């Protein structure tokens, strides 16, 4: 009389089978980062922070970018 495999050994066998027969998804190559390319993002900041950068008028986004760059150690 043949012995039936336990559910643990069956799931282990299925896992091993899938590991060797499943082809991993190929991701497209990551594009190299281009220097000085700006990206549009949505960022939530407190009103007083926004007021601080906007108080000197035009160029506030560049000033905020410079402050973030400095905070990032760049």
Describe this entry's structure for a reader.
With 74 residues, this protein is mainly alpha-helical. The protein has a domain of 29 residues. The longest helix is centred in the first third of the chain and has 15 residues.
Percent of residues in helices? 40-55%
Query: Helix segment count?
Result: 3
SSE run: HHH
Contiguous runs where pLDDT drops below 50 for at least 5 residues: none
Mean model confidence by pLDDT: 86
% residues in beta strands:
under 5%
- State the separation between the terminal residues, measured CA to CA: 72 Å
* Shape label: elongated
Write a brief caption for the model.
The chain has 74 residues and is mostly helical.
SSE layout:
Blueprint: H1 7-21, H2 47-54, H3 60-71
Characteristic key phrases:
mainly alpha; 3 helices; 47% helix
